[in-house]
Specification:
By secondary structure, the protein is an all-beta fold. The protein is built from no helices and 10 strands. A hairpin with a 4-residue loop joins strand 9 and strand 10.
Length: 108
């Protein structure tokens, strides 16, 4: 499992959102975003493999980009930015999505 994971729950339907494309990005010194990994949510709505197996997490600003166009017309894309201060920790950042709202938190 990578050091950064996520999952997407369709709270309106009361089930995991499957097949949602997710991109993980890292902001480099120039301010540009570098893609670190891409995946899709599995049958449980989870993405466990965003980073390559030997990737070393760095301090800095990361972004999870969710392509929700298959499950939300109002929020076709959600971008969640978060800061990694301690690269030794695991960062789980879920997205709870409904037709007209979404929320997130740092999970475990």
């Amino acid at each position: 499992m990578s050091a950064i994971t996520t999952h997407v729950l369709d709270v309106g339907a009361g089930r995991p959102a499957t097949g949602v494309p997710v991109t993980l990005e890292f902001r480099i010194a120039s301010g540009e975003w570098r893609v670190l990994g891409k995946s899709r949510t599995d049958a449980d709505g989870r993405v466990r493999d965003l980073l390559p197996k030997m990737h070393v997490l760095e301090q800095g600003l990361y972004a999870l980009r969710f392509d929700n166009s298959s499950c939300s017309k109002f929020f076709p894309e959600v971008v969640l930015q978060f800061r990694v201060d301690d690269p030794r920790q695991h960062y789980h950042v879920p997205l709870l999505l409904s037709a007209h709202s979404y929320t997130t938190y740092r999970g475990s």
